[in-house]
Amino acid sequence: QLDPAKTYFKASSGRLMRYIVYAGDSTAIRRSDFLHVSVHGLGDRAESFEEYHQQWSRAGYTSLSVGLHGSDLDLLRQEKKARGQLRLVYDFNHQVQDLVELLASQNQSRVAISSHSAGVPISLAVAKELRLRGIEVAVIAGGPFLNFRTAVERAINPEAFRKMAKDAVMSPGKLKERIEGMLKFFLTTALRDHFEKIAALKGRPLPKEDKDLLGVGATAIAMGLKSIDLMDKSDPLGIRSALQGSSLLVLIGEKDKVIHPSSTRRFGREMKAAGLYVEAISLPETEHDLFEIPALKTFPTAHDFFVASFGRPIFKSTPIRSILRYLR
Fold this sequence. Notes:
The protein is α/β, with parallel strands linked by helices. It has twelve helices and eight strands.
């Protein structure tokens, strides 16, 4: 049974998506008007960016934290009970469709999306659909999941990767199967460590059964991204063409061990070449958890970026960095 204290959105498909609403402080003075939304990555949940959202609330903004399919413990428990096992893949298109429906139901003309890691490709696809509906959108991409190959290269020990490539010369058909198997193993085990770390920092330890459920769910989210490649210049998702003229802020954790900073910078350059208004901000001594532990550091830049995107007519002819300096 689902916790009645939690909020779930029922999409037209019948699928449920968890989200948390953080109400804005009515006494705060806002410099622009928009709905702020966060979309997490692998290993995180709707609750993960609580401190970040509290800062948006104190600044006067209503803020939504969305839990991707495969990230909510109650839904995972319900699914396991009903099916006997968890699914192996959470479809990328289902994530996008249901999130678009949720955000469109909020009746907002401006939506600001803070996205992290695997939440970045989902958020960009959502931004495309919202823009087609006439909704203004600006996106922050923190440590973006670019494609499966990038994830594999970072996830698998280089020596193991070289051995697999050598084996592939002898048996090419098995390479893909072995890569996927190792990546699934990495995700399931590494994400358990991630849950331990976050739970310890917040003083909320998770039982082993819950960590196992979340690990399998996160791996299934990743499997839904297998065919997604944000670096593909042919733009199969139509994201680059649909978001021309939109604002994108790329956050680079210089100590990021999951998505290499150089890959994130290249992503920013390619999106800028595609016609988006892009600025890349480097965060020294920051790892992959860009919206969790360093929330106090991330929030001012995120806030100023969204205000500049929606509230300043000079934005489209002035570099974002100049506006951020001006606002501070």
